[in-house]
Amino acid sequence: MKRTPLYDTHVALGAKMVPFAGYDMPLKYDNIIEEHLAVRSNCGIFDVSHMGQFIIKGKEALNLVQVVSSNDASVLEIGAAQYSAIMNAEGGIVDDMIVYRLDEDQCSEGEQAFMLVVNASNIEKDLAWINENNVFDTRVINISYHTGLLAIQGPNATNLLQELTDIDLSEIEFYHFKKGIFAGIENVLISATGYTGAGGFELYVDNENMLALWNAIIEKGQAFELKPVGLGARDTLRLEKGYVLYGNDINDETSPIVAGLNWISKPDKTPSFRGVDHFRSLKANKNREILIGFKMDGKRIPRHGYEILDMQDNVIGKVTSGAMSPSLDIPIGMGYVPRSFRKPGTSIQIQIGKKQMEAEIVKLPFV
Amino acid sequence: MNTPENLKYTKEHEWIRIEDDHAIIGITDFAQSELGEIVYVEVETVGETIAKDEVFGTVEAVKTTSDLYMPLSGEIVEFNPKLDENDGDQPDLINSEPYGDGWIIKIKFSDPEELASLMSSEEYVELIG
Questions:
Q1: For the whole model, what pTM was predicted?
Q2: Which residues on A lie below 8 Å from B60 (Cβ)?
Q3: How far is B39 from chain A (nearest CA, A)?
């Protein structure tokens, strides 16, 4: 089992550690619901160092990114980022990721550099696939195992972080980043991204600086009542915003077109992504499945794998994510159903144990 | 983990306190710790007679759902009103006081010979390591 540089810190804080994607990670420090609400209303800090990072660098770096990535990286200026999916040859999703267009300080003449940030569980699979597609004058460097990542999220996150850097954080737009000195540490990549929909930043730093960075933020965070937050609340926070989780809502067989990810799919770019023909033919198929959000009454929680039924008790799909929403205090979930059921307000049922419980399709996000 | 010596246990991580021909049943400190924050307890079987090892209810925790099993055959005579969402509505008592106010049901057991199948606290401690 791998550990992040902050393992001992989490244990000392009394975190409940659980295995996740080969890492021993904090599920929660105290209470998942309170951690969730702290991020929505104030600020929380997450160690998400298990996430993977690859540097794609070379004269044809853009070509390699374009071939494996569903989104169009050619529109990225230096200092900008975009959400995207790594596509396989069958039009399925190898992984979802963020693509960063890095500065070219470390590049030779004519080279470009990108950073791909991927899910921990998929690091080796992604790497193999990207390398297989690398017929270009470009290098792929896996920096996952010596790069740490902290997410500081919530409406007060920016105010707190601003006290630790001279870089004007208010000038970093959503899905943009700057590299610079943060809490006295050089070369921190400060990214206006996150998986909570609550605002804030993600900070990438070398492993050896992780503890110093964490401690500086925790110390400054006392005045802000900053809370450490585990993977449990990270999951409910992302679900309330309708963000998909790889392995739950999407996998190697899911097309972005059914997962609500048409907005990150740019089939007309050149070169286009792997599996683009499958993408196009599925897009033309009006009977395809679609990922929907639903809400329920009561207190039973819909969970991954539960069946979705129509009102005549026919099985029409499966739940992919579900939770008691801490913000709304009702059960919410996502799952796949035939496209004809997509309209908000449509009644469906969720099979929970021996019971069929009524649910209503709603627009995403929930919050 | 707290495992009081005066109680009996099952491998399903339930505890049983025998009071004459009745038994009070809850889940252990270990079980509540593994489940995490409990948000709902469903017991819709009051008045029913259920066989040993059959499901009598369900616990919803934030991260997982867990069925509750009868440690002994018998009739369910009471569901702890403090946990019931239509009454006290404090399911988190199972987390804070698993052996006290977090008890779940009271049963009138029908087969005293089944008592021999329950584990002592020593045996249970060995089970959970």
A1: 0.94
A2: 299-301, 324
A3: 8
